[in-house]
């Protein structure tokens, strides 16, 4: 199994879990002050993280198929490309794949810094409620 | 420790999925960024783990 496949499977698992068992409500004092505004900001930031997690693997699959290569699936099957090889489109898609992957890493870094700000500056439970073993 | 989310915190299930996603996204990005490597066996090996 490849790293890309692992990310896709984890993403499906996370989205399914989110639908079946919604995340806990915002625990911040800051959240209570700014109420609805912060709730919307939190939803937008989560969407900003989930969107590239969906799009990056999808564009990566397009790159592989547009190169005319088969797509390996879980090490069990190879899905033949339905399209004739088109190196120019593959190169453009690869550029988009790389750009979005870099954007995802930057957004994840901002997400991590925001969690640390919540923990050390705002002193709320936003970070600890996602840490294994942490008592809140 | 609950596997599911409660009103106070994320459950163990979502925590495991979250941190595994972090690991695999970073681990996937590293060989992906090796497209900057010159063509040859190291780049080929890197791509095999990435796709």
Mean pLDDT of chain B: 81
What's the shape of chain B? Answer: rod-shaped
Low-confidence stretches of chain A: none
Oligomer: heterodimer
Which parts of chain B are unreliable, with pLDDT below 50 for 5 consecutive residues or more?
none
Give the N-terminus to C-terminus distance of chain B in angstroms: 35 Å
Which bin fits the share of residues in helices of chain B? 55-70%
Summed up, the helix count of chain B is: 2
Most extensive chain interface and residues per partner: A-B, 36 and 34 residues
What Rg of chain B is obtained from the alpha carbons, in whole angstroms? 17 Å
Order of helices and strands of chain A: HHHEEH
The global form of chain A is elongated
Q: Roughly what fraction of the amino acids of chain A lie in strands?
A: under 5%
Query: What string, H for helix and E for strand, traces the elements of chain B in order?
Result: HH
Range of strand content of chain B: under 5%
Give average pLDDT of chain A, whole number: 88
The main sheet of chain A comes to: 2 strands, antiparallel
Estimated radius of gyration of chain A: 19 Å
Structural class of chain B: mainly alpha
Describe the structure.
The complex is a heterodimer of chains A (136) and B (51). With 136 residues, chain A is mostly helical. In chain A, 65% of the residues lie in helices and 4% in strands. Chain A has one domain (2-130). Chain A has helices at residues 3-20, 29-34, 36-66, 87-120, and strands spanning 71-73, 77-79. A two-stranded antiparallel sheet of chain A has the order 1-2. In chain A, α1 (3-20) packs antiparallel against α3 and α3 packs antiparallel against α4 (87-120). In chain B, α1 packs antiparallel against α2 (41-50). The relative contact order of chain B is 0.11. The mean pLDDT of chain B is 81. The A-B interface holds A 2-4, 6-7, 10-11, 13-14, 17-18, 21-25, 27, 53, 60, 64, 72, 94, 97-98, 101, 104-105, 108, 125, 128-133, 136 and B 1, 4-22, 24-29, 31-33, 35, 48-51.
